[in-house]
Amino acid sequence: MSEYDSIEQLLESEADKSVHIECSREATERAMRFVHERRSGRRCAFFMESDKGFDRETVRSYLRFFSRIAGGAITAEEAIAHFGLKGLARTRVKLLSAEQRALLNFARMSLFEPEVVFCERPLADVTPDNRSLVLTWLGQVVEGGGRLISCGNTLREALLLPGSAFYEEDGRYFSAKTALGSEDEESDAPYEGDEVRVFKVPAKSDDATLLFDPREIDFIESVNRANYASVRGQLYPVSMTLEELDAELSRYGFFRCHRSYIVNVQKVAKVERFTRNSFNLTLSDAAHTSIPLAKGRAEEMRERYGWR
């Protein structure tokens, strides 16, 4: 596991990679200053949560302004189309929702054809319906040799983005594993005989222990060394390890899609690929939750369930 004593050390050591960091706002601001200073000779684009645009401008006039500054090959109209803003082209920026402002900022950045993209919580305000617009563009930046840096993410958001995920703990920074190694590969023992097996996932809720039927669970996730079961949009702490849960839940249609996730395959609505190495699963729950699918597990998942 990679460990760093500061966010500056992390960014310096991972200079040739895309990185996404769960960290404090103070660390995010330090990271932005570091990128400003160290990447000044490259085409950079920045998006901070405080970037709200020019209230008096319309979406079209705002992007045309930055298109003239960028002087690149991408036009304002192309950016409007890519990020689904056609219906808002004549709308004043001050009237946009938080999600629409986020899409506007991505459209602005795309005009500069950046080599380095720095974002503060890029997916925070983007709903699942529009997330693919953002992830597709970010994937194109990476495929074109660019570098992505995002800070302030939740770890789940960080794992969804193309690149390596890190988290902050007690002022230090640790890598979050993004693929299953051979030591984690479980042999799926076939179910034999007519024995009746009953299994429920024990989870905590205040002072009570809840016992969940596997069919109720959307996914299991591991965040900051703690495991949680997601049931109807709520996360419940579970004491079992992911290895123990994987061994029990595999016979109920669950799949270890990532070092940090076990998913109920019956709840998977869509599999998306944004780069050669970046896959996401979108669930059919009320929130249309997105969770990462490790590259090494994508092919196994397709073969196991007969997906093409």
TrEMBL record:
Molecular-function GO term, any one: phosphorelay response regulator activity
InterPro entries (alphabetical): LytR-like, LytTR_ABC, LytTR_DNA-bd_dom, P-loop_NTPase
SUPFAM superfamilies: P-loop containing nucleoside triphosphate hydrolases
SMART domains: LytTR
Highest taxon above the source species: Bacteria
Domain HTH LytTR-type: from-to ranges: 201-307
PROSITE patterns registered for this protein in UniProt: HTH_LYTTR
One Pfam short name: LytTR
Protein name, UniProt field: LytR family transcriptional regulator
Species assigned in the record: Slackia equolifaciens
